[in-house]
Design a protein that fits this description.
The protein contains 7 helices and no strands. It is mostly helical. The radius of gyration is 22 Å and the shape is extended.
């Protein structure tokens, strides 16, 4: 491994540079998030705080998404985004429909699906806890 020549005799490392930038940012009162907002966040999509399906029901205006989806489908999509532990199968089933598949030509919808599939939702600090109790149906068979 070739190293670039040292221009100075002062000892420095990437870790110490990051630490120094963090100290300066804190001193200036800048509190940046570790990652950009997720496109899978329904609040970002609707420009309003969305915490549950109830919040979706009381939206006065839904996002247009280039009129690729009907109002009913848009409401359904936003409500799916409120359930992070179920949204992947719900979204895949939603867009598997031939009537909705064409909507994926919209870049905003593409980024929503990409975020749902590839962002580590359960590891983010603000993610709601995954359900611990699962109801099972017993049959007499």
């Amino acid at each position: 491994i070739r190293r670039p020549p040292r221009s100075t005799l002062m000892r420095s490392s990437a870790a110490s540079d990051v630490y120094k930038r963090q100290l300066v940012a804190r001193a200036l009162g800048v509190d940046r998030p570790r990652a950009p907002p997720s496109h899978a966040d329904p609040s970002l999509l609707c420009n309003r705080t969305i915490n549950s399906e109830d919040d979706v029901l009381y939206l006065s205006q839904l996002p247009l998404l280039d009129d690729r989806l009907t109002t009913r489908d848009t409401e359904l999509l936003v409500s799916y985004l409120t359930a992070p532990y179920l949204r992947i199968p719900l979204l895949l089933h939603f867009f598997a429909d031939e009537g909705r598949m064409h909507a994926l030509g919209n870049e905003q919808l593409q980024s929503i699906v990409e975020a749902c599939l590839f962002e580590p939702g359960p590891y983010s600090a603000d993610a709601p806890p995954a359900p611990t109790d699962i109801c099972l149906l017993y049959t007499s068979d």
